[in-house]
Specification:
The protein contains 8 helices and 7 strands; from the N terminus they run E-E-H-H-E-H-E-E-E-H-H-E-H-H-H. It is α+β, with helices and mostly antiparallel strands. The strands form 2 sheets. It has a 5-stranded antiparallel beta sheet with strand order 1-2-3-7-4. Strands 5-6 form a two-stranded antiparallel ribbon. The chain is elongated and about 65 Å long. The structure holds flavin-adenine dinucleotide. The site of flavin-adenine dinucleotide has 10 residues, from helix 6.
Length: about 240
């Protein structure tokens, strides 16, 4: 089951995706991530089980009592493609970015004409929360804005290409590109404990949609299938903590 997760790519937003490129413990080791967590807590040989009931009970005990470090024994490595609007928020998660990430270089690689985020709908400003959005604009207004956005992208990209043709360095020509919408690709590694912190914060209803859909996809498509007991305990004890 977990073997099939490696290499799996899940589409997110209009042009983004998440791909799991590695997992520790690796499925080939024949030990589930849940059991690796339990083994770490017992300081026993990885994969040594005391039976499913006792193993699962211990894992739930660890989660309930915030005995956190065993959850750091499982690691996920992802390749991601997301607009800068998402990346900008992602990099605030130091344990899911700064410690171990490699990002595409706009100094080295040329941006592609289709590297820009086009939202499916336009959300209105939230009436009471200055940082949040509310209901979608009516379809006709949304469509008009989308057309303007695409025209803006086209013009920015045309100027970018014009600058490149004049011999301007890629690191400078990119000043013409719409910064917040440009798609970025990066590789990042995170342990299960810090991933749960990210998921708790970014799957919450107050997280911006453009990062929430990535968090939800990671949880649904990778975290839950890789760590079913941990996900169950997370939902019971930790997912809504602090709300
Ligand atoms: C809805 C929402 C709105 C936000 N709005 C803003 C905003 O307006 N402006 C803004 O700047 N940020 C904002 N943020 C980002 C937020 O402040 C955090 O930086 C981000 O969520 C990362 O959380 P974290 O520190 O728990 O995660 P990580 O950086 O991954 O850290 C995980 C945990 O590791 C520990 N840790 C990591 N690094 C250190 C360290 N150097 N020293 C001590 N302990 C450490 C902490 O216990 C931390 O909780 C927002 C986040 C959310 C979810």
């Amino acid at each position: 089951m977990t073997q099939e997760l490696i290499g799996k790519r899940v589409p997110v937003l209009d042009k983004g995706w998440i791909e799991l490129i590695d997992l520790m413990p690796h499925p080939a080791a024949g030990v589930s991530g849940d059991l690796a967590i339990v083994s770490a807590a017992r300081v026993s040989f990885m994969g040594e089980s005391k039976g499913e009931e006792k193993d699962k009970k211990l894992l739930f005990y660890l989660m309930r009592h915030e005995h956190n470090s065993p959850f750091e024994m499982v690691e996920f490595k992802f390749r991601l493609r997301a607009p800068l609007i998402t990346y900008w928020q992602w990099v605030r998660h130091r344990t899911f970015h700064y410690q171990s990430a490699n990002a595409q270089s706009g100094r080295y690689t040329e941006f592609d004409e289709n590297d820009f985020y086009v939202p499916a709908a336009w959300r209105q400003q939230h009436t009471s929360n200055k940082q949040a959005s509310g209901a979608n604009l009516p379809d006709a207004e949304s469509q008009e804005l989308t057309e303007k956005l695409i025209a803006f992208y086209d013009e920015g990209y045309r100027l970018y290409e014009e600058a490149l043709e004049k011999g301007v360095a890629k690191e400078m020509a990119r000043l013409f590109l719409p910064g917040f919408s440009v798609y970025y690709t990066w590789v990042v590694k995170v342990d299960a404990l810090n991933l749960m912190n990210f998921l708790r914060l970014r799957m919450a209803s107050d997280a911006q949609y453009e990062i929430r859909v990535y968090a939800e996809a990671i949880y649904r498509e990778f975290f839950k299938p890789a760590l079913p007991w941990t996900a169950e305990a997370f939902e019971e004890f930790a997912m809504n903590a602090g709300e």
